[in-house]
Amino acid sequence: MGQYESHVFVCTSGDSCPTQGNVEQFVKYLRDEAVKSGLKTDVRINKAGCFSQCGHGPMMVVYPDNVWYGGVQESDLKEIFESHIKGGKPRSLCPRRASMPCLCPPYVLNS
Ligand code: FES
């Protein structure tokens, strides 16, 4: 295990994601939630450059789980934080997800 229990990257400086959502606000929200939850030293929220998944954004990735979220909306952040980042369970995004990739945003590109 690395220094952090969970390390989250939000694509904030690619050409596409920043045009698809207020990704700077995503980072602020997640950082604030980490502090409020007493997880400041366990959870790291970083801004990141392009993940080469342009057009699927806004994109964020949660490690060490290697879960890539695409099509993330501000309204999804609470559930992603509570369920995955804090709770350790990647968000279950779609009833079809167990058997096939789901394209209902936000979706998990791999897990
Ligand atoms: S701009 Fe975000 S994945 Fe390329």
Number of domains: 1
Low-confidence stretches: 95-103
Largest sheet: 5 strands, mixed
Helix content: 25-40%
Q: What is the name of the CATH topology?
A: Glutaredoxin
Strand content: 15-25%
Overall pLDDT, averaged? Answer: 84
Please identify the top-level CATH class.
Alpha Beta
How do the strands of the widest beta sheet line up side by side? 2-1-3-4-5
- Identify the overall geometry: globular
Helix-strand makeup class: alpha+beta
Total number of helical segments? 3
Q: Please trace the helix and strand order, writing H or E for each element.
A: EHHEEEHE
Radius of gyration: 13 Å
In the CATH hierarchy, what is the architecture at level 2? 3-Layer(aba) Sandwich
The first-to-last residue Cα distance is 18 Å
CATH level-4 homologous superfamily:
Glutaredoxin
Task: Describe the overall structure.
The protein is of the alpha+beta class and 111 residues long. It has one domain (6-110): Glutaredoxin (3-Layer(aba) Sandwich). It is 25% helix and 22% strand. It contains 3 helices and 5 strands, in the order βααβββαβ. It has a 5-stranded mixed β-sheet, with helices on one face. The longest helix has 14 residues, at 23-36. The protein binds FE2/S2 (inorganic) cluster (FES). FE2/S2 (inorganic) cluster binds at residues 11, 14-17, 50-51, 53-54, 57, 59.
